[in-house]
Amino acid sequence: MRYRKLDANGDYSFGNQQADFYRDTPEAPAQAVSTRLKLDQGEWFLDKTEGMPWDTQVLGERTVATRDSAVQRRVLGTQGVTQIDSYVSTTDPETRTFTPTVEITTVYGQTTISENL
């Protein structure tokens, strides 16, 4: 799997030839998971059904029963991810953040993803 790296601002990395890509490493599927979690459902103009159902299944008071399963489905649906080894999510009402921390096994090894969303 070849996946273009993102810089500190979340933009594609350019100018370093092959060093701008993850190639057959656990970081490639991990970055794919991260970007898939950040895509809001309906945001991509080519497929309005693609993305995370943030408004309906993750964020809000009445989504406690659906939020973790929605994130886990999205993670498992990512190319290169074979299984979730552990999953923990936290919410912070003061900063209004939702943070899933996921340890995954990929076809290239294990890695951990933690995103403040």
Number of helical segments? Answer: 3
- Per DSSP E runs of 2 or more residues, the count of β-strands stands at 5
- The overall average pLDDT, rounded, is 93
Uncertain parts: none
What does it look like?
With about 120 residues, the chain is of the alpha+beta class. It has three helices and five strands; from the N terminus they run ββαααβββ. Strands 3-4-5 form a three-stranded antiparallel beta sheet, covered by helices on one side. It has a two-stranded antiparallel sheet with strand order 1-2. It is globular. The two termini are about 25 Å apart.
Topology (SSEs and partners):
Blueprint: E1 2-4, E2 21-23, H1 27-38, H2 54-58, H3 67-76, E3 81-92, E4 97-106, E5 109-114
Antiparallel strand pairs: 1-2, 3-4, 4-5
Question: Which key features would you list for this structure?
Answer:
single chain, alpha+beta, 3-stranded antiparallel sheet, 5 strands, globular
Give a short overview:
The protein is α+β, with helices and mostly antiparallel strands and 117 residues long. Helix content is 23%, strand content 29%.
